[in-house]
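Hi everyone,

Forwarding the result from last night's run.
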Amino acid sequence: MSAAAVSAIVLAGGRSSRFGRDKLAEPLAGRTLLDHAIAAVILIATETIVVSPPDETPTVPRGVVVVHDHIAFEGPLVGLLAGLRAATNPLAIVVAGDMPTMVASLLEALIARLADPAIDAVVLEVDGLSRPLPAALRTAPAAAAAERLVAAGERRLRAIVEALPMAVIDEPAWRLLDPDGTTLRDVDTPSDLPQ
């Protein structure tokens, strides 16, 4: 899969309420949590979009585009819609800004499954359940579905993958690329920070 065909969407619009301060600005190994998430996706996409609340513009590396939710803290599906509207490539990889230890080869495997034209969304299975992030999406159908869902009052991120023809990479398969499951680690509280 050519990186030129992929937009990366980094969702960075949460409140950080359980963390107690802006967790995406939290330093980890000399960079912020948000910088770690961006660094993982920038390896596999030529366009990187960070979705932020309306009144915040995070510091991001040169070439990364910041777009804003139209209403603050409306939920991750609204943030995803803002990112999908800004995306210019036919495929997207979607991650959270608080996922600092993603494995790029696993993100590439998600995107590679979109080579099947019958599939519009790809996610990972964990403990028998599909996880909404990270996800690979076909941009146009995902944007159309997100528009409909948000207009109907939906705010859950899981709703987008449930609304699209989906493939799930089972846990034994994806653990060949990420044995420790570090891609799925997110940071909700200070104790979640990798040591």
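The CA atoms of residues 20 and 63 lie 30 Å apart.

Cheers,
N.
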